[in-house]
Amino acid sequence: MNCIIIDDDMLSCRLIEEYIHKTEGFSLLNSFCSPQIAIKKKALFENVEILFLDVEMPGMTGFDFLKKIENPPAVIIMSSKENYAVDAFTFAVTDFLLKPVTFPRFIKAIEKAEVTVNAKLASIQTICDESLFLKKKNTLEKINYIDIYYVEAMENYAILYTESENFIVHQSMKFIENKLPNSIFRRIHRSYIANVTMVYKIDENFMVLGNQNKSMALPIGKNYKNLILNTINSL
């Protein structure tokens, strides 16, 4: 995991650097003696999983620094004063280390940080597994896969149909098919991809999506029919 240190205490900084270097699976991207310098390198924080942050520093405290950072990584606060511990946890930090930091205490802190980082990654993955973002004018709108009824190919674009609105996508059907989870979507025709969780019935060469109150019939291509019938439970 990638780490960054912000600490004006050079001895403490060198100690944490040494601990990181000797711990397998962890790497130090950079050390800053000033939060004012670090805040100018915001792009660097996109690749950081763990931030070791001192509290008392000239010009800007560690807490002031956190207020200026959006979506901070897992934060481990460090200080020689115990009274900062309560304030630290109001910022939802992962851990608080009292200086001088021992190696066993360092290991305990990064183990907690790993849990935090992995939980965040799992949350992101869940979002990615359940939805995608579709472009609408100059914005990106999150759409749950389950809310997409079907996709229809046009001449040089495709239309994704949902219950509330439709989205034009300037991609090939093959590209869209590869993006959509095959546990939910199946290519049923050269011009159609259907959400098979919404199948109401299959009638001759048509797949009917929806229910008795609202339904839509999509053609099933002869090259796709056997594959579709083999993927559904039937007696």
Largest sheet entry: 5 strands, parallel
Task: Note the beta-strand portion.
Answer: 25-35%
User: Can you tell me the residue ranges where pLDDT is under 50 for at least 5 consecutive residues?
Assistant: 123-127
CATH class of the largest domain: Alpha Beta
Percentage of residues assigned to helices: 25-40%
Count helical runs.
Answer: 7
Distance between the termini: 52 Å
What class would the helix/strand composition place it in? Answer: alpha/beta
CATH architecture verdict of the largest domain:
3-Layer(aba) Sandwich
Rough outline: elongated
Mean pLDDT over the residues: 86
Per CATH, the superfamily of the largest domain is: Response regulator
Helix and strand run: EHEHEHEHEHEEEEEHEEEEEH
- Stated plainly, the CATH topology of the largest domain is called Rossmann fold
Q: Can you summarize this structure?
A:
The chain is an alpha/beta fold. It has helices at residues 10-21, 35-38, 62-68, 84-89, 103-130, 173-179, 225-231; strands spanning 2-6, 27-32, 50-54, 74-79, 95-98, 131-136, 139-144, 148-153, 158-162, 166-169, 185-189, 192-195, 199-203, 206-210, 215-219.
How would you sum up this structure, described in words?
By secondary structure, this protein is an alpha/beta fold. The protein has 2 domains: 2-129, Response regulator (Rossmann fold), CATH 3.40.50; 137-231, LytTr DNA-binding domain (OB fold (Dihydrolipoamide Acetyltransferase, E2P), Beta Barrel), CATH 2.40.50.1020. The protein is 30% helix and 33% strand. The protein has helices at residues 10-21, 35-38, 62-68, 84-89, 103-130, 173-179, 225-231; strands at residues 2-6, 27-32, 50-54, 74-79, 95-98, 131-136, 139-144, 148-153, 158-162, 166-169, 185-189, 192-195, 199-203, 206-210, 215-219. The radius of gyration is 26 Å and the shape is elongated. Residues 123-127 have low confidence and may be disordered.
